[in-house]
């Protein structure tokens, strides 16, 4: 990857011997590896057995989970937050694991619509919840820095599974609680 970043830098017309750029290909490769580390993680590793028996069947919500991802179309970042809710069915997921699942999927080349669905589907399958809701709000640098250059635009996506899709009251409760 280091050699490829060097080629990109040279292709834009820069001098790799310039003091500020001498180590840039190596730094860029390391940064890109970090930004896409979700490819090297699995759900099993992230969850790490942190499922606990519970009689609770009340809504669990973790909101304002910071996230960053890379748009798969332009390889520019999108940055925002995720709100995740689920209704347990016999077991609950360790609190930090929800944020770790968000991180795992967001640290891949991605579109926001898919990211919402991946998070929801994974939590639904791992917990056997009666429903999962995910809303992501993000600003996309591909839209802010290029193309239409709209600085104040943001995108919201949602994925609703189980009772959150089937029951308007449950969905409304989730939406009111994340406001």
What does this structure look like?
With 179 residues, the chain is an alpha+beta fold. The chain has two domains: 2-35, no CATH class; 49-178, GTP Cyclohydrolase I, domain 2 (2-Layer Sandwich). 41% of the residues lie in helices and 27% in strands. It is built from eight helices and seven strands. The chain has helices spanning 2-11, 24-35, 43-47, 95-106, 112-127, 141-144, 163-166, 168-178, and strands at 51-53, 60-71, 77-87, 91-93, 109-110, 131-140, 155-162. It has a five-stranded mixed sheet with strand order 5-2-3-6-7. Strands 1-4 form a two-stranded antiparallel sheet. The longest helix has 16 residues, at 112-127.
Side by side, the strands of the main sheet go: 5-2-3-6-7
* Helix amount: 40-55%
Q: List segments where confidence is low: pLDDT < 50 over at least 5 consecutive residues.
A: none
Sheet with the most strands, sense and barrel status: 5 strands, mixed
What's the overall geometry?
elongated
Beta strands, count: 7
Strand percentage lies at: 25-35%
Q: How many structural domains in the coordinates?
A: 2
CATH topology-level fold name of the largest domain: GTP Cyclohydrolase I, domain 2
């Amino acid at each position: 990857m280091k050699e490829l970043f060097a080629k990109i830098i040279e292709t834009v017309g820069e001098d790799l011997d310039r003091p500020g750029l001498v180590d840039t290909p190596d730094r860029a490769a390391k940064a890109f590896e970090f930004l896409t580390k979700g490819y090297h993680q699995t759900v099993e590793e992230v969850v790490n057995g942190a499922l606990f028996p519970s009689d609770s069947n009340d809504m669990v919500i973790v909101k304002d989970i910071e996230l960053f991802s890379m748009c798969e179309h332009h390889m520019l970042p999108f940055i925002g937050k995720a709100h995740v809710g689920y209704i347990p069915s016999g077991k609950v997921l360790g609190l930090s694991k929800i944020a770790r699942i968000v991180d795992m999927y967001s640290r891949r080349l991605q579109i926001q619509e898919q990211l919402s669905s991946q998070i929801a589907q994974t939590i639904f399958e791992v917990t056997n919840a009666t429903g999962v809701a995910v809303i992501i709000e993000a600003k996309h640098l591909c839209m802010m820095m290029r193309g239409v250059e709209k600085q104040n635009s943001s995108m919201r996506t949602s994925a609703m599974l189980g009772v959150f899709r089937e029951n308007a009251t449950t969905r409304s409760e989730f939406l009111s609680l994340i406001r």
